[in-house]
Write a structure and sequence with these properties.
Layout (H helix, E strand, L loop, with lengths): L40 E6 L5 H12 L2 E3 L1 H9 L1 H9 L3 H16 L7 H16 L2 E4 L12 E7 L2 H12 L3 H23 L11 E4 H23 L5
Parallel strand pairs: 1-3, 1-4, 2-3, 4-5
Helix pairs in contact: 1-8, 2-5, 4-5, 6-7
Length: about 240
């Protein structure tokens, strides 16, 4: 299935007709079994128009990791055969770890009871336990545990984000302003509804990057370097 990096295109949650193919960081958890998770997850959160999709793609290319966009996650979450294919690849230890993480998230009320959200959460954990993946959006940084996750927030001045979306989507400035506001509101509402968190809480992120200041290529370089540094710092991931 071909990956699509459509972070900056209109894509309401579970939009009809879409068919494209990793947390709330809770209290300290028991040490995972050796090799579980098998590697690091990079969870990218982004403001609308901050070029999250292209930066995720560049970082993935530098690290040689798979990149999962919002559309890809939602497609797999709704596709039983795709979910089963991922499940079949899990070791018994990995499957047990996913069940433990789900239970902890639910017990601590870090996750809503919405059935589709629970499916999406399990999917993110399934990807994350295998490691070496980049997940764009969908609250991945609030699902995966801090130990095995690099949680990155991408931001940019509003005028730059408006100009970017205006050019990308061929919108008037007024239309682009409305689009930026709509997307930012939709993403903030998603986090508040399902994770009881706010995207502008700076303390939940490992790294916050101003994409206008650094540019796409340097942001990707910094994310890749931070991922390698965190893997070296975590036993069993270097």
């Amino acid at each position: 299935m071909t990956e699509r990096y459509t972070d900056d295109f209109p894509s309401p949650v579970l939009e009809a007709g879409e068919s494209p193919l990793h947390g709330f960081r809770g209290a300290a958890q028991d040490e995972p079994a050796p090799g579980v998770p098998a590697g690091l997850t990079i969870a990218l959160s982004r403001e609308a128009g901050a070029r999250g999709a292209t930066i995720a793609k560049r970082a993935g290319e530098k690290l040689g990791w798979d990149v999962y966009s919002q559309e890809m996650l939602e497609y797999v979450a709704q596709n039983a055969s795709a979910r089963q294919e991922l499940k079949d690849k899990l070791t018994p230890a990995a499957a047990a770890w996913i069940d433990e993480q789900m239970q902890q998230l639910l017990e601590r009320h870090y996750l809503s009871q919405n059935p589709s959200m629970r499916d999406l959460t399990r999917l993110v954990l399934t990807l994350g336990v295998q490691g070496n993946v980049i997940v764009l959006g969908r609250g991945a940084g609030f699902i995966m545990p801090a130990r095995s996750t690099l949680h990155v927030r991408l931001v940019a001045p509003q005028e730059d984000r408006i100009a970017y979306l205006s050019q990308l989507l061929r919108l008037t400035e007024e239309e682009a302003v409305a689009e930026v506001r709509k997307r930012d509101h939709r993403r903030a509402d998603f986090l508040a509804t399902h994770f009881h968190r706010k995207p502008n809480d700076v303390h939940v992120y490992d790294m916050i990057l101003n994409t206008s200041l650094f540019g796409e290529e340097r942001c990707a370089d910094l994310i890749a370097a931070a991922a390698k540094a965190k893997m070296s710092a975590v036993v069993g991931m270097d």
